[in-house]
Amino acid sequence: MYRWFSMLGAWFIARLGRLGKTGVFFAHSLLCSVTPPIKFERVVRQIWFVGWKSMLVICLTAVFTGMVLALQGYPTLRRVGSEAFLGPLVALSLIRELGPVLSALMVTGRAGSSIAAEIGVMRTNEQIDALELMGLNPLRYLVAPNLIACLVALPVLASVFNVIAIFGGYLVGVRLLGMHASTYFGEMSNYVEMSDIVGGIYKSMSFGVLIAWVCCYKGYYCRFGAQGVSAATTQAVVNTSALILVWDYFITSLVF
Amino acid sequence: MISVEDLWKSFGRQEVLRGISLAVEPGEFMALVGMSGCGKSVLLKHLVGLIEPDRGRVVMAQKEISSLSRRELDELRSRIGFVFQGGALFDSLTVFENTAFPLREKTRLREPAIRSKVMSVLEQVGLKNTENKYPAQLSGGMVKRVALARTLVRAPEIVLFDEPTTGLDPIVSNAMLRLFDEVHRRLKLTGILVSHEIPEIFSIVQKVAMLHEGKIVAVETPERIQNSRNPIIAQFLSGSPEGPIEYR
């Protein structure tokens, strides 16, 4: 019995230690992101990498998300005689929820995995040690630019996602199912408020921080060898995706 | 210049360093030899503060590593060069950019001055006309020479070499050792060279330290080490599988 308690205690202490390490990593990275010298060149490069290079996958998923929302929403609303509200249904679902969440999940899969793998390979090849021995703070050089880039890129990507998805909803609702365009867009502008848009932007900013934090952490502390990098990449994507969905609940209850 | 006193380090239950004490005088070049996995690289990483010891002291250039603040440690590290086993070059940067990197990041030198310094050091290590190549386009020997160039461009007082010739063919390996010797003599560097190139390294170092099972077995001149009657040293130098050293 005593042995079991001791093992449980050791497990708990190890978990707590790891949690503390994650927190310290985040605090240091955040400090490096807001204090000079900020590596602007790397920030711009990462914004291009996280933002611009994710654009295609964001547009593709957005258009089909909007289309399926309209395809599912129209007959459902028609059952209760409210098909005129298809526009607000699509727009509010996207702006408040699906735009930020789906774009964050897409960025996690495309850019987050890549960030974790790149930093992981740098750890394995001793490039992070080399940076430290040159007197450079690796967090400032590798993590802070990703943190700033994700913070900037995610709201932009979520906004693009929303616009394209609303257009996808228009294609199905108006062009395919014969709804009037003025009803689709008119009701949308009646029901969507500025607070919905601002809330969505806050959400995607927090998701951006989450992606950079978890993916950089997993890469930074990855185990050695190809297996270590591969495990770090997988864990980065799985943990970030799960955390996005968990955090989504809490931030929704806070913001809206 | 380099002093290690009673250094202990364990990873989990495995004791890697067990009371290491070592001293390297200014201008001295010391070889650190021993079986693979005996803790040579771990010891080198303690010297630059990449690993914290469980117990013991490391003093580099009259400064105790564990008592330094982050800024003081960075300052001290700018006086120390470290040549990694695999080179640790940044794969997305060219040879020129890799070599110029510490100057661009840590000094206020203007680009023409950086270019002239980098080109000069690349010429010294025999890498003229390769400045636009990426690490993936270089041979093993060239990667290690770029790593040396990146270290030398900062004009360090102490250089630590972690198996810089491992994996190279004998000709390139000997040429690299000759290059280290030349650099050491010209720049009057203090250094530690971890290497398995025995007996070639004996001609370029002033002292040899042998590490075995986490302890220093001997610190002697190359001549005395070669004539040592210590069975561990004798077996290691002869490369014989029979003797007190157990291998797995």
Task: Report on the architecture of this protein.
The complex is a heterodimer of chains A (256) and B (248). The longest helix of chain A has 39 residues, at 86-124. By secondary structure, chain A is an all-alpha fold. Chain A contains 9 helices and no strands. Chain A has one domain (2-255). Chain A has helices spanning 2-34, 40-50, 55-79, 86-124, 127-133, 138-176, 181-191, 194-220, 225-255. Chain B is of the alpha/beta class and 248 residues long. Chain B folds into 2 domains: 1-58 and 156-248, P-loop containing nucleotide triphosphate hydrolases (Rossmann fold, 3-Layer(aba) Sandwich); 80-154, no CATH class. Chain B contains 8 helices and 10 strands. A 6-stranded mixed beta sheet of chain B has the order 6-7-8-3-9-10, with helices on both faces. Chain B is globular. The mean pLDDT of chain B is 90. At the A-B interface, helix 5 of A face helix 2 and helix 3 of B.
